[in-house]
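Hi everyone, sorry if this is the wrong subforum. Our group has a chain we'd like a structural model of before ordering constructs, and none of us has done structure prediction before. Sequence below.
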Amino acid sequence: MRDSAACASLRPDERAALARLGHHRVYERGETVFAAGDPQDVCATLTQGLLKVSHHDEQGHERILSLVHPSGFVGELFSPLIRHDVIALARSTVCVFAWADYEAAIEQHPALARALLRRAAEDLYTARAQIALDGRRSAAARVAGLLLSLSHAASPSPCHGAVQFDLPVNRGELATLLGLTIETVSRQFGRLERDGLLRRHGTRGVELLDTARLEQLAA
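Answer:
Right subforum, don't worry. Here is the predicted structure as tokens:
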């Protein structure tokens, strides 16, 4: 996590000074880290666990907009209010900073500002690509794409995804994230397993057997 978070752009002494400004908080599964409408007076880096960024419409229906994996930055730059709910999907630890302190660090360390800007641009590109593709991708392609994304998030390597990992969310949350029904998600997992693309281990364990075919399917 230390090598992939935004603070990785800082020198060791600068990183240590930034760390002294923050403090750690632990959230259990289902607890709210940030709530939509709250003042944007803090920001955080996820050090362990998994978070979801979600939105509820007027009817109360939830749409999971993205997942935040370890080293992910949680906070909305240049916004006075938090616009989306951030919920722990597993027992999670975050390093929390007062926004005023973090903003001062950004002004003091241009490398940190560039790292955050690069991360924000990557997140925006990913979100736009997801919106564009989800409108026309099949259910199988959506599931394959998410499995590949989770594989990369579970790997310490920036180049290769993990072959075997545990799904960080249950089938219902997968369905909400993909805009599908639970039944459809279950059928797609069964089909991928029968076709030899993956093997399931227990309730959440997944082993990817043919990433090349998964990439073809996701595309």
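For your construct planning: The CA atoms of residues 56 and 217 lie 30 Å apart. The mean pLDDT is 86.
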